[in-house]
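Researcher: We're teaching a course module on how sequence relates to structure. For the next exercise, students receive a sequence and then see the predicted structure as tokens, so they can try to spot secondary structure elements on their own. Here is the exercise chain.
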Amino acid sequence: MSEEWFDVVDEQNRVIGQAPRSEVHRLKLRHRAVHILVFNQRGELFLQQRALWKDDFPGVWDSSSSGHVSAGDDMDGTALREVAEELGVELTQPPRRIFELDATASTGWEFCGVYRADHEGPFVLQPSEIRGGGWFTIGAISEWVAQRPEDFASAFRVIWERLSSEIPTAS
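Model: And here is the predicted structure for the students to work with:
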């Protein structure tokens, strides 16, 4: 399989070139990614546990679905692709983008589009990407992140800090 290529972007998220995934990560170049947060009708969030062989953050918990934006692609299309690939869910339109994060060391130098989707499952998890997953209440996630932040990918911690400041923390 050939290596993925990403758009390399500047501080204002403008494309300035393209590079292979390995180079983008090794050189800590700014690029783009999406995170999709899937909620059920009970208000619980589905979290995935990353596969143990992932190059970044193996075995830790992360957004319901996430992925890099390939060179020439956009965030909305990538959100649709990632939900289909990782969760086996074919959405008819892109989920709602709820905010964006700037590219920082904590996001892995990724400008992140963060989306919200509503779905009840069940999911068909992609084993090459995801070790497992589960539904969690907002309160349980907030407590877990506070007590064991190392259990989560760093970008998810940034997302959670922003998201949890905007929603009630009742279980």
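Model: If you want an answer key for the exercise: The chain has four helices and nine strands. Residues 5-164 form a domain with the Nucleoside Triphosphate Pyrophosphohydrolase fold (CATH 3.90.79.10).
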